[in-house]
Design brief:
By secondary structure, the chain is of the alpha/beta class. It folds into 2 domains: about 130 residues, Aspartate Aminotransferase, domain 1 (Alpha-Beta Complex), CATH 3.90.1150; about 280 residues, Aspartate Aminotransferase, domain 2 (3-Layer(aba) Sandwich). Helix content is about 40%, strand content about 15%. A 7-stranded mixed beta sheet has the order 4-10-9-8-7-5-6, sandwiched between helices. Strands 11, 12, 13, 15 and 16 form a 5-stranded antiparallel beta sheet that branches. β8, α10 and β9 form a beta-alpha-beta unit. It binds pyridoxal-5'-phosphate.
């Protein structure tokens, strides 16, 4: 049943009785959020009837747009046939069996063949971290319990995920976090502790820092390294092409598992079908969620390599039994949605469109930066994930104030595009089915937005 109250009621009670994620409750009450009531294609409409292109793509998840009818039909049909049954030991369901086989095929080029299902990205990260520790225990290396990750990385909000997150905003208020988590400088040419702006040289410095941290912690104490192939929420940080292969080589040399966190990048966003594949790397595990169901149903999957799977499946001691799982692991409605999504994702070849439209968007943003001094850095160039970092001053890179970036957001929205503001960054992650015309609308709206500075 859609909301039945009139718009006055909704506006009066906006943010009154609910707390919003990633926001100060008082801020939300002082400046209530936009009430979005309709969505079609790649456009959303607010309660006052104002329509915009959604340059956020829901939240990096609505890759096929809001009108993916086969996905909606699959959800409706599964709800009718069997709305839920658990896949805890002893029972399973038809949709999830079929989905696991489809995913095995989809992720074969990444060397990933088994799936563990979850209800979202943080769940997937938690699952991968736990399975990494268990993997080492089964192999008789119980001392490998620590995790390494990148500063500026984002991995979600469970205690495990927050502990490997690399941004203070998501950590400080919730400390103490998990012990044994260390962070390596991110390969971000615009801001890094080495003062190095050359991406290739910076990648080598960050890899050296990784080696240094492993030596410091002791390789035999480390379970896994987790990274996003392209850092998303941290502001679309694109590592040099040598970075992830370098991480893979170091992890292999030290017996450390590599978890590729692809909650954003799996299923085509980078212009390749996965971020790891984009860089020519085969991870030991891959965390996915978001676009797996186009955002229409909360769902996720951790994909597991043959080598890791064999350790679990070959265990005869009992320690390989998985003491982890969610009520909604393998939810049949989510599985049905994911099956339909995979079919649509392939049929529409969204990775190719992401690559082509991503080039147009990135070029347009670079042109924008030539006209607006408040844009300190333009990041992207790999599919449909781009960011603009705004600064008060280009030379000192002093951060922009909240009011200015708020004005850009508001004016861009009024001019026809919903964008996402995260700290000093404007993040763009439109659906992967956008057309060149949609990209033009986004760029023109941003031009108007920066005109309001
Ligand atoms: C790379 C990455 N990992 C994990 C998460 C957490 O996913 P969720 O918000 O579904 O829990 C996100 C969310 O944006 C993400 O971008």
């Amino acid at each position: 049943m859609p909301a039945t109250k009139d718009s006055n009621f909704l506006k009066e009670n906006n943010a009154r009785s609910l707390w919003h994620p990633m926001a100060h409750p008082a801020d939300m009450q002082a400046a209530p959020p936009i009430i979005v009531t309709r969505a079609r294609g790649v456009r959303i409409t607010d309660i006052d009837g104002h329509e915009t292109v959604d340059a956020v793509g829901g939240l990096w998840n609505v890759n096929l747009g809001f009108s993916a009818d086969p996905v909606k039909a699959a959800i409706a049909a599964q709800l009718e046939r069997m709305p839920y049954y658990s896949i805890f030991r002893g029972t399973t369901n038809d949709a999830v069996i079929e989905l696991a086989e489809e995913l095995r095929d989809f992720f074969a080029p990444d060397g990933l063949s088994r799936a563990f299902f979850t209800s979202g990205g943080s769940d997937s990260v938690e699952t991968a971290l736990r399975l990494a520790r268990q993997y080492h225990k089964i192999r008789g290396e119980a001392g490998r319990v620590k995790f390494l990750s990148l500063k500026k990385g984002y991995h979600g909000t469970h205690m495990g995920a927050a502990s490997v997150n690399g941004n203070a905003n998501f950590r400080t208020a919730y400390e103490p976090l998990l012990p044994g988590c260390s962070h390596i400088p991110a390969p971000c040419p615009y801001r890094n502790p080495f003062g190095e702006s050359d991406p290739g040289r910076l990648a080598q410095l960050c890899l050296a820092a990784l080696e240094d941290e492993i030596a410091f912690q002791g390789a035999g104490t480390i379970a896994a390294f987790i990274m996003e192939p392209i850092l998303g929420a941290g502001g679309v940080i694109v590592p040099h092409e040598s970075f992830m292969p370098g991480v893979r080589e170091i992890c292999d040399r030290h017996g450390i598992l590599l978890i590729s966190d692809e909650v954003i990048t799996a299923f085509g966003r980078t212009g390749s079908w996965t971020g790891a594949r984009h860089w020519g790397v085969r991870p030991d595990m891959m965390t996915t969620a978001k676009a797996i169901t186009n955002g229409y149903f909360p769902f996720g999957a951790v994909m597991i390599s043959d080598a890791v799977a064999e350790v679990f499946e070959g265990d005869t001691s009992g320690i390989g039994a998985i003491g982890h799982g969610y009520t909604y692991s393998g939810h049949p409605v989510g599985a049905a949605a994911a099956l339909a999504c995979l079919a649509e994702t392939r049929r529409l070849d969204v990775a190719a469109n992401a690559a082509a439209r991503g080039e147009e968007l990135f070029a347009g943003l670079q042109a924008l930066a030539e006209r607006h001094a408040v844009i300190g850095d333009v990041r992207g160039g790999h599919g449909l994930m781009c960011a603009l970092e705004l600064v008060a001053d280009r030379d000192s890179k002093a951060p922009i104030d909240k009011a200015t970036i708020g004005r850009v957001h508001e004016a861009t929205y009024r001019a026809g595009a919903m964008i996402r503001v995260s700290g000093p960054n404007i993040i763009l992650s439109p659906p992967l089915v956008v057309t060149s015309d949609d990209v033009r609308v986004i760029l023109e709206a941003l031009e108007a937005g920066f005109g309001a500075v």
